[in-house]
Structures are given as C-alpha cells and as structure tokens.
Amino acid sequence: MPTSLPVPIEFSLPEGWLPARPESGDPGVAFAAVHPHPDTGFAANITVDGGFPPDGTTLAALAAESVRRLAAVADSVTVDGYHEFGSAEAPALTQRLAFRALAGETHRDLVQSQVYLSLVDIEEPRKRGVIRLALTATSAQHDHVVGGFQEFLRSVRPGTGKAA
User: Fold this and answer.
1) For residue 57, how many other CB atoms are within 10 A of its CB?
2) Tens of pLDDT along 125-153?
3) Number of C-alpha atoms within 13 angstroms, CB side, residue 158?
C-alpha cells in the first residue's frame, strides 16, 4: 500500500506516462508512474515520496542521505549535478545521480534526477514537509525522458488533500 505525503500536492502526468499500480512498488512511495516504452526491459519511472524531517534538517542533508541509501544497494554512485534554489521560505534542491545497480536480473547503468521541495501545508501553515520527486531511467534513455519529467515538475502545486 502506498504511503501518503506530508502535505498534499496536485500534479499532471506528461502525455503517455502511465500510473503504476500501488501494489507493484516500494511501500514508501506515495505515487509512481512509468514510461510506456522501456529501454531494454527497464521502464523509466517517476516516483513521489516525502515526509516530515526532524527540525533543522536541511534539504542538503536529505539529499546526502539519499546518496548514502542508494550507495548501500548500488555498485557505484556518483553525484553528476547538484543545485540548491528557491528561497528561505520555500527552499528546493535538485541532484542528478549516476549509478550501476541490479534491476531485475541485469546490472544496468541508471540515472536518477531528484528534486526536493520544502512545502507548507496550505490548510495548516505551521506544518512543513519535504516532497521528493524522482525520475529514474537508464543512462541511454534519460535524456529522452527528462523533458517529460520537467513537464511533470512544472505541474506540481500545493493541493488541498480533498477529492475534487
């Protein structure tokens, strides 16, 4: 069963991307989608997760922890890009990771683009959570699907958590 996010968000999937069935993925993921055209058996995917980090935890610390967690299961991990942006009230961070890992029964060269957003709950402004949005693709397919991920990112906005 998928987890819920610390603050509600709304978004639109890029054309062609398909929501993944919740039971098929990581239980810590609130939402997942897959690209309809896998690259040699690996489907590029977008995942959304998040939580309430301890007070004082920076987005940089969360991103570094993500690298450490990935390094525990991957053959190698390198940070190919890192950028903090936003404001003190709404900080954000992006990082791009390259890694080699076992996916299914095959070792693959993968790239993961991560975006961390610190968001205030619009219904309870004292609550601040962090949302992580990630694109994972093979290194060969990443540049072909990153535009769809960017389109997805542009659609993310605070939500009410109420069904429409």
Assistant:
1) 12
2) 777 889 999 999 999 999 999 999 999 99
3) 15
The model's pTM: 0.89
CA–CA distance, 15 with 65 (Å, rounded to integer): 32
What CATH number has the domain spanning 9-158?
3.40.1000.10
Helix (H) or strand (E) holding 123: none
Structure tokens at 91: 């900080």
Interatomic CA distance for residues 93 and 112, integer angstroms: 14
pLDDT of residue 164: 43
The C-alpha angle with vertex 29 and arms to 19 and 126, in degrees rounded to 5, equals 115
Tokens 């309430």 map to which residue? 52
Extents of the domains making up the chain = 9-158
pLDDT tens-digit series, residues 47-70: 999 998 888 889 999 999 999 999
3-state helix, strand, coil in the chain (%, to 5): 20, 40, 40
Radius of gyration of the chain (CA): 16
CA atoms 100, 103, 107, 109: torsion sign: negative
The separation between the first and the last C-alpha atoms of the chain, rounded to the nearest angstrom, is 22
